[in-house]
Amino acid sequence: MGVESPHIELGTYTCDQIPGSLRLTRSAGTLHLWRRGTRDQLTQAGPATYTGNGYTLTLNGTADRADQFTLDLDRAPGLAYVRR
């Protein structure tokens, strides 16, 4: 069993339209989105676009310095998240 790389915290983000917060971390060069304590590993689909299970995340800035991002859920597109 391999040892998992540590997660580097990139920030906690909130959206005016949705209660709660999301976190982004990076581990071994991969971006992870945390929702309700559950981690989703994101797949890079473009220079600033990542996909997860049922959603697309588009960063405004680089992955290591993202102050905000847009989360497009299948059921709720265009949710703007900003770093707290």
Task: Provide structural commentary.
The chain is mainly beta. The mean pLDDT is 92. The chain is built from no helices and nine strands. Helix content is 0%, strand content 61%. A hairpin with a 2-residue loop joins strand 6 and strand 7. The protein has a single domain (8-83), classed as Lipocalin.
Task: Identify the notable features of this structure and list them briefly.
single chain, 84 residues, mainly beta, Lipocalin, nine-stranded antiparallel β-sheet, 9 strands
The tally of domains stands at: 1
Mean pLDDT: 92
SS strand fraction: over 45%
What shape does the CA trace take?
globular
Instruction: Provide a count of the helices.
Output: 0
How is the topology of this model organized?
Blueprint: E1 8-15, E2 18-27, E3 30-35, E4 38-41, E5 43-44, E6 49-52, E7 55-60, E8 68-73, E9 79-83
Antiparallel strand pairs: 1-2, 1-9, 2-3, 3-4, 5-6, 6-7, 7-8, 8-9
